[in-house]
Amino acid sequence: MSDTTASQGWFTSLANPTRFLALSGRVLPYLAAAAVITTLIGLYMSFAAPEDYQQGITVRIMFIHVPAAWLAMMCYSVMAIASIGTLVWRHPLADVAAKSALPIGAAFTFLSLLTGSLWGRPMWGTWWVWDARLTSVFVLFLMYLGLMALHKAMDDPARAARPAAVLTLVGFINIPIIKFSVDWWNTLHQPASVIRLDGPTIHASMLYPLLVMAIAYTLIFFTLHFMAMRNEIYRRRVSAMRRQAAQSIGNGAIGNGAIGGGEMRP
User: Fold this and answer.
1) With contact defined as beta carbons under 8 Å apart, do 67 and 217 qualify?
2) Model's pTM, two decimal places?
């Protein structure tokens, strides 16, 4: 019981923005260094990987495209978990985590769509086709943009937190659709070749660079996410200070008006 209590206490302590700022400040330099090193190693392995016998050198777009697609879905999953924290436990940092992940997830989704289009042109003979996988990823991109617009439309983060959390959880149904679209419908995309019950079907010379790039993308995400969360906390603190200052000035003006009115009474 003592270990469980200690772990719960450690998790609860992270709900304090000040403690999170202190912890993330210590972790960020190492996380950023790991992201840079892993990215450089992954890029080297990707360019050193052999060409595909059918796709030729264009197969190397895979090392950018596939991890971006994975991270687009993972980022939205992180937002969904944070949304549960907002709605159920009212975790003080849950809304901060969800909002901070929005532009990062949108960027990964856009990169996935862009590189997929560049890869599809020589392979399929077209830049775009409305198959199940492409359409569902495009819907994911629109969901990111819609949630960003919702937060932008409301000045008070507390007002936007609950509706944004509800919409995020409703939109999470699109994640399994993206994952299993190649199995449920006839699409131009090939079936899963890495995450399979019977093991990966991709050759090791391409699998290892792909996995290293996936780790690099994940480290990049958490580095950017921690940085964005820190900025959001500071932004909310500044906004709260400005509101308090404006309220104090308003109360002072009302008080001076009352005093002035009293002086003018006959």
Assistant:
1) yes
2) 0.84
